[in-house]
């Protein structure tokens, strides 16, 4: 009986509790707050943000919620359908160097598929700044996202500017 309990706890810890190694190449000043694999059990994991607020992932039956908790209330900042999610990673990163860190939520559906959500605290509320399709890999350096698609090292670039995510595109010269 004890061996079964230990194995089950080891499985839970390895699949749900905050991991300190990132699956993505993100600027060293980004902090991985929570990392969780898909679980079918009702479970909640949480960690503290730089602002001393707590952030939690609450897995419930067929969905999960990401909740921001402070001393006065709790705010549901994102909800996802569990059937479409495998891994959730939450990072804190200060894109605009204003000492007000934004949240990066990476919702991986499978290898190379998913979404990246960037959220920013706006007074008492959390505002979504933008969403990016996840490729087979991402890098974040300063305010530039590179999302790799797997096609000959091709990447789509995005920039965080004025509290929004902007897609960068190349302009071709006509030779003039």
TrEMBL record:
Signal peptide per UniProt: 1-19
Q: Does the keyword Signal apply?
A: yes
Keywords in alphabetical order? Signal
Query: Under which name does UniProt file this protein?
Result: FG-GAP repeat-containing protein
Task: State the species of origin.
Answer: Flavobacterium caeni
The lineage is: Bacteria, Pseudomonadati, Bacteroidota, Flavobacteriia, Flavobacteriales
């Amino acid at each position: 009986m004890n061996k079964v309990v230990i194995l089950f706890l080891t499985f839970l810890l390895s699949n749900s509790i905050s991991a300190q190694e990132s699956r993505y190449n993100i600027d060293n000043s980004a902090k991985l707050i929570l990392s969780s694999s898909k679980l079918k059990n009702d479970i909640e994991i949480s960690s503290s943000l730089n602002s001393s607020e707590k952030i939690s992932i609450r897995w419930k039956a067929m969905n999960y919620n990401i909740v921001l908790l402070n001393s006065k209330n709790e705010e549901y900042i994102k909800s996802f359908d569990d059937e479409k999610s495998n891994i959730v990673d939450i990072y804190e990163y200060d894109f605009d160097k204003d000492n007000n860190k934004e949240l990066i939520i990476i919702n991986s559906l499978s290898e190379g598929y998913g979404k990246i959500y960037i959220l920013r605290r706006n007074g008492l509320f959390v505002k979504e700044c933008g969403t990016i399709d996840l490729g087979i890999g991402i890098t974040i350096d300063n305010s530039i996202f590179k999302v790799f698609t797997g096609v000959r090292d091709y990447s789509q670039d995005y920039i965080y500017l004025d509290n929004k995510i902007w897609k960068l595109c190349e302009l071709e010269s006509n030779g003039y």
